Amino acid sequence: MKYSWQHEGLTADQKAEIVLNEMTEEEKFSWLSAPMAIPMGDEPLPEGAIGSAAYYPAIPRLGIPAMQQSDASLGVSALGNVRPGDNATALASSLLLASTFNPQMAQLTGELVGREAFAKGFNVQLAGGANLIREPRGGRNFEYLSEDPLLTGVMAGHSVRGIQSQHVVSTIKHFAVNAQETGRVVVSSDLDEAAMRESDLLAFEIANEIGQPGAVMPGYNLINGEWASENDFLLNKVLKGDWQYPGWVMSDWGATHSAAKAALAGLDVQSGSNLDSQVWFDQPLRKAVARGEVSQGRIDEMVRRILRSLFAVGAVEHPATPFGPIDYMAHRLTAQREAEQGIVLLKNENHSLPLKKGAKKLLVVGGHADHGVLAGGGSSAVTPVGSLRLPGINFMGIETEKVFQPSSPLWAIRAESNAAEVLFAHGNDVAEAVRLAREADAVIVFADEWRSEALDAQGLELDAEKNHLISRLAAENLLTVVVLETGGPVTLPWLDNVPAVLEAWYPGSGGGEAIAGVLFGRVNPSGKLPVTFPASEQQLPHPEQVDPATTTSLPGSPVKGGIIHVDYNVEGSDVGYRWHARTGQAPLFPFGFGLSYTEFTYNDLQVRADGESVYVTLTVQNIGDRAGAEIPQIYLHPASKSYVPRLAAFERVDLQAGESKTLTLRLEPRVIANWDSDEGLWRIEGGNYVVIAAKNACAPILQANIAIKPRRFGY
Ligand code: GLC
Predict the structure, then answer these.
(1) Could you give the 3-state DSSP secondary structure of residue 329?
(2) Top-confidence residue, 560 or 149
(3) N or C: less crowded end of the chain, CB within 10 Å?
């Protein structure tokens, strides 16, 4: 045994305590702040850094490895092309993952990310994006999962669990209510506690329980006027207090605003310190300790939290080392399976899909489909070798490109369709595309919509040129199929004029093959929308977007002292489908919607209260002629309708033709309950509740009543 922490039978916390007691003050402070480990300007890469978001030095005499931190949820990214030529598997966007409603897929793809990170030498993955999609036009919605707290929490938690199973710490981020990107560093998300606990915080709470992430990352925004990275209510009261969170809180990169205040509010590490006004967690913090403003015990706690998280995932005993083996072929197939499960069939008039194989001539148009599939921009962008990189935006002083990942739908369609001829048109020459469409048996047109970190979509429309192209093609060929590659909900003005529409989101390294598989029937689509598609922006709780560039100058601007306040109390915890239910607005496509090439029936809904839990049993049958997957959703509301229906359980079930299965689902008590801010606990009002088995938020199939006893529970 070489190191004192190597005694048999010690817990992660005990090992952390041993190491902490052997560390010098210098070694402790070397872990409390660090610059971005990407060469910026004339700042070279820190000695020992692989080249990624962050590097913290090893403590060799104690057997503690360096911390090499990389982004993010969708694979191992290389921001600023910091590791030229480095390959990585690109998972589909988190929106697509959530569309699978499959926690096992979240865990499987999390394992993939963890395996690749570990083999590249990274022991911290800045993953676990779990913000609720409050703002459908949000620039990073592709990195988040859903508008619903239960779906978000379950999927994020399983993804984090998968990553950490590979001896890599995962974060969960951006804590909390980080709903928009434009002006993200000056926006205060204003939301009362009860609504926050029942929505954004519930997503993080469930994800934290399931995944036990080693670290939490607050966002750039403020919450109720306090910076997320120094928000005592969120970090000390909720996270470390109520939830007893044992890991460490790292700021976002360039999101630290003080030393003592932040340290006392619960921040443990200043990340990306070279992007801040100063390295708060070095000299200013040391001085605060010397003045007695911050105790040495608090400094020790910061380091202890890091150490125990590293030990908890086995990152010390199993140090990640670069250039380990990666089976990219197997990983690409996993990415394809994920995409196959998450593509959503939005429209399929007269069974236009699946397309017949062996056509004489097919035409594929747009979306750089000859090259690959679109990915979202920013720190999460994974760039497999062979990616097409186009100009994107500059943020944090780093160029982030518009990337098409090398999984060509055109070539996959050529392989899958057995068509005699499959032509391709870029789509920028509309006349040429229309001429080719005239002679084709079918047209497959791609509508790509790029979104990025630091930049919200402006409105819900696709580019006008894309809408025009689709309309012209649809007028020319009755079998014009639209494949959307979007970063969130969009409006579809030509919807009535096309027979079929797929939402493929950003489908990752197996996306082209997955799209082709659905189009020609090898794959039976089963994805369900994790976000509502509004019919228009007017349906939103905030029809006008908050744009700092314009908002500041408007009369009556919500800007106070350079901070822009967005009042999310308008909708409160009724985000997405709950807002549509509250306001009685029919969306374009509801939350949970998705078609299949087969049909399912629901029967025998039973509800029973068992002690403190409520269970539902339901029989689902596949009455079609081919295998498929269905995702029954269980919603609930008090018979008195004191709140709108909330998703309280869901399950993905695979069924062969004719097969039926009886499912048993437990309803999440915190969805049944409301938060009582006065008493600081969850309260279930006793009485009658309506339990609904539905195909989506607007398609109830069966319902039953249940009497639930009143109860209060908390921390
Ligand atoms: C970014 C993101 C964060 C990411 C970090 C490191 O600005 O907000 O999600 O992990 O910086 O790249």
Answers:
(1) helix
(2) 149
(3) N
The pLDDT tens digits for 396-407 are: 888 889 999 999
Q: What is the DSSP letter of 236?
A: I
- Could you tell me if the CB of 71 is within 6 A of ligand 1? yes
Tell me the C-alpha distance between 124 and 246, whole Å: 16
Q: Indicate if ligand 1 lies below 6 Å from the C-beta of 579.
A: no
Q: Mutate which of 131, 453, 455 to test ligand 1's pocket (most atoms within 8 Å of Cβ)? A: 453
Beta pairing class for 559-560 and 563-567: antiparallel
pTM: 0.98
pLDDT band at 259 (very low <50, low <70, confident <90, very high): very high
Alpha carbon distances (Å) from 391 to 92, 382, 394, 700: 21, 15, 9, 45
Contacts with 675 (C-beta within 8 Å, 6 or more apart), sequence order? 193, 194, 197, 198, 681, 682, 683
My answer on whether omega of the bond before 174 falls inside 30° of 0, hence cis, is yes
Strands (E), 134-266: 169-175, 187-190, 215-218, 222-223, 226-227, 248-249
Domains of the chain, first to last: 12-35+54-312 (3.20.20.300), 343-519 (3.40.50.1700), 537-583 (no CATH), 600-713 (2.60.40.10)
Indicate which residue's Cα is closest to atom 11 of ligand 1: 253
Best of 253, 256, 395, 453 for a ligand 1 pocket test (most atoms within 8 Å of beta carbon): 253
In tens, the pLDDT along 24-68 reads: 999 999 999 999 999 887 778 888 999 999 999 999 999 999 999
Q: How many residues does the chain have?
A: 715
Q: Are strands 500-503 and 480-485 parallel, antiparallel or unpaired?
A: parallel
Is the minimum distance from the CB of 334 to ligand 1 under 6 angstroms? no
Distance 506 CA to ligand 1 centre (A): 19
CA 600 from centroid of its chain's CA atoms: 29
3-class secondary-structure state, position 95: helix
Q: Is the peptide bond before 384 cis (omega within 30 degrees of 0)?
A: no
Q: Tens digit of pLDDT for each residue in 591-610?
A: 999 999 999 999 999 999 99
